[in-house]
Specification:
A hairpin with a 3-residue loop joins strand 1 and strand 2. With 138 residues, this protein is mostly beta strands. The chain has two helices and ten strands; from the N terminus they run βββαβββββαββ. The strands form two sheets. A five-stranded antiparallel β-sheet has the order 3-2-1-4-10. Strands 5-9-6-7-8 form a five-stranded antiparallel β-sheet. It starts with 6 loop residues before the first strand and ends with a strand.
């Protein structure tokens, strides 16, 4: 299946914590980073997700925020360090490609944010992704 979701990073499930309606699934990405996905408990069951299973983490580029360093005092736990490799901007929006250990991410952010953060190729950044915005595929 082909998807329009640009961010697709392989990993392995390290734990599943089931709740009544929602579950958290911790995944170690190919580059060694740990992320958490919050998905429905029904999805965990339907996909047969369990510790040790190979999955692909999927994130729409519009759900990736960027910071120029680690962010404290925020509920977003998925903070993946990387380096900007390319930026394409239009009248209002920018597409920022970020190299991360084991893969790459694309963030769709405003042109104003690109300028305010001083982003250019080679800039160190941290990709911020809410756990509820990560989907998993087997």
């Amino acid at each position: 299946m082909s998807l329009s979701i640009r961010n697709q990073i392989p990993g392995t499930i390290t734990s599943v914590t089931a709740g009544e309606a929602m579950s958290t699934v911790k995944v170690r990405l190919a580059g060694g980073q740990d992320i958490t996905a919050a998905i429905t408990t029904d999805a965990v069951k339907d996909l047969g997700l369990a510790e040790g299973a190979a999955v692909t983490a999927l994130v729409k580029s519009t759900e990736v925020s960027l910071a120029t360093g680690p962010v404290e005092g925020i509920s977003i736990r998925n903070q993946i360090p990387g380096t900007v490799t390319d930026i394409a901007t239009g009248g209002a929006m920018g597409s920022v490609k970020v190299s991360v250990e084991g893969g790459a991410l694309t963030a769709a952010i405003t042109k104003d944010a690109v300028e305010a953060l001083g982003l250019s190729a080679g800039t160190s950044v941290v990709a911020l992704i809410k756990s509820t915005e990560i989907s998993l595929s087997v």
